[in-house]
Amino acid sequence: MGNIQKFINLRRCMKNQWLKTSQLEKLQFKMLKSILNHSYKNIPLYHQKFKEAGLYPADIKSLEDMKKIPITTKQDIKDHYPQETIARGVDTTKCWKPHTSGSTGKPLTMVYCSRDEDYQKAIALRPNLACGQKIRDKWAVITASYQAKPKKWFQKLRIFAPEYISLFDEVNQQISFLEKFNPKILDGYATSIFLLAKKLQDQDHPKINPKIIFVTAEMLMENMRKTIESTFQQKIYDQFGCVELGRTAWECPEHSGYHMDMDSVFMEFIKNGEEVSPGERGEIIYTGLYNYTMPLIRYSIGDVAIPSDEKCNCGRGLKLMESVEGRKDSFIQTPSGKIYSPIIWTIILRPFSQINQFKVTQEKIDHITIEIAKTKDFTDETLTAVKERIDQYLGQEDVHFEFVLVDEISRKGNKKLKSVESKLKIKLN
Ligand SMILES: [Zn+2]
Predict the structure, then answer these.
(1) Where residue 85 sits, what CATH number does that domain have?
(2) How far is the CA of 429 from the centre of ligand 1 (A)?
(3) Quick one: 317 and 343 in the same domain?
């Protein structure tokens, strides 16, 4: 697709945010109907689910009717991937295929054709522009080096072109790069920007002065937000989402909650099968509105949030959710003194489709146990490859890694799985 079309997408997204909520709901329902019809016809998994529920797409006459459609779990998608989850007739060799992880550590592959990928990138840029980023601003993004190409298409035009910094670099190395680059926009995983802020506080370093800070991909704990904001003397903007659907909600300059991207996703908040009231905690159920290659219909991801009926002072019609209750994974500190963000484990283990789930536990400062829930394809070679990959990232650390292979990671009660836990007391603030 040409660049003109990409700008049309972006312009449309920028316009949509100012529509009235009722207009956005209308647009949302129109997009929803279209993807339901498509999924019923072209995606065997959803055809089967509709059939089992005795439903036709025509039975969905309002947003409220959506709850008639059965939930789809991550396991459903994994069990039926790729034949029954990808639209008939798509040549997937030309598609973008980001690996997902999610908080339970179960990896899964998504597939986007270029048209849908372009739309996602436009949606992804919207909050950045809404919060004041300009097209040629110097923009540093802390990321895993091989991470899915975020917002890449504009780079060819030399605008919205971020400089990437590896999550795995030493904090001091990140700092010296940032001092030279002097970004106006600092963007990245909440935990890694937090570690950066901590280091800068210790060193009383005034040379990095971003004007806008975006954090993403992880639960932003209140102490982390305070440390980052006091270090840089700037408010930060938190963005919420998942790899399966991209970014789905974000803070605007009013900071009065997270605006949901109603023109890219339909979000329900469910407890015991029923929609919760505004102000109540519910499990998020997503229906993606633009990925026609691999649609996600009433997809349960395990994240919990609180829908809100408040209107934001900014005047955007995009509805708000109040706050997000995410995972509370631990940082790990090694004998060298280096502190690792919990996100690194996801990044290290994500490429292995033979791993269903993982749980990392730091028992002692020099002893880390990695429990792996394996699929039937997990072999001795896989384990060797996992060890090599850990060695590649953490080989310099004087730590013994113990591997435990299981069929399923036990979770106490029905709680959301904590993927990374340290039994040490690590002083972060
Ligand atoms: Zn707002």
Answers:
(1) 3.40.50.12780
(2) 30
(3) no
Q: Answer for the pair 232, 198: CB distance below 8 angstroms, yes or no.
A: no
Cα 198 to middle of ligand 1, angstroms? 29
The pLDDT tens digits for 250-290 are 999 999 899 999 999 999 999 888 899 998 888 899 999 99
Among 153, 230, 151, 146, which Cα is nearest to 187's? 151
Are 197 and 61 members of one domain? Answer: yes
Q: How far is the CA of 318 from the centre of ligand 1 (A)?
A: 8
Centre of ligand 1 to C-alpha 250, Å, is: 9
One domain, residues 282 and 362: no
What pLDDT score was predicted for residue 292? 97
Q: Mean of the pLDDT values across residues 1-22?
A: 88
pLDDT band at 429 (very low <50, low <70, confident <90, very high): very low
**DSSP secondary structure letters along 172-223:** HHHHHHHHHH--SEEEEEHHHHHHHHHHHHHHT--S---SEEEEESS---HH
What is the 307 CA–ligand 1 centroid distance (Å)? 14
Ligand 1 centroid from CA 131, angstroms? 10
240, 344: one domain? no
Domain tally for the chain? 2
Looking at the structure, tell me whether residues 187 and 281 fall in a common domain.
yes
| Single pTM value for the model | 0.80
Distance 138 CA to ligand 1 centre (A): 25
| Domain's final residue, options 306, 326, 346 | 326
Residue 291 has a pLDDT of: 96
Report the amino acid identity of residue 8.
Answer: I
pLDDT digits (tens, 9 = 90+) for 156-213: 556 777 888 888 888 889 999 999 999 999 999 888 898 899 888 877 656 899 999 9
- Strand order of the β-sheet with 320-325 is 163-166, 139-143, 185-189, 212-216, 236-242, 246-250, 258-260, 320-325, 299-307, 282-288, 265-271, 274-275
Span 299-317, mean pLDDT? 90
Burial class (CB in 10 A: 0-12, 13-18, 19+), 282: buried
**Do 210 and 144 belong together in one domain?**
yes
Do 322 and 336 fall within a single domain? no
Mean pLDDT within 47-66: 96
* Co-location of 353 and 255 in the same domain: no
Q: Evaluate whether residue 83 is within a structural domain.
A: yes
Give pLDDT tens digits for 111-142. Answer: 999 899 999 989 999 999 999 999 889 999 98
> How remote is the CA of residue 395 from the centroid of ligand 1, in Å?
45
Parent domain of 372: 332-422
Residue where a domain stops, chosen among 279, 301, 326: 326
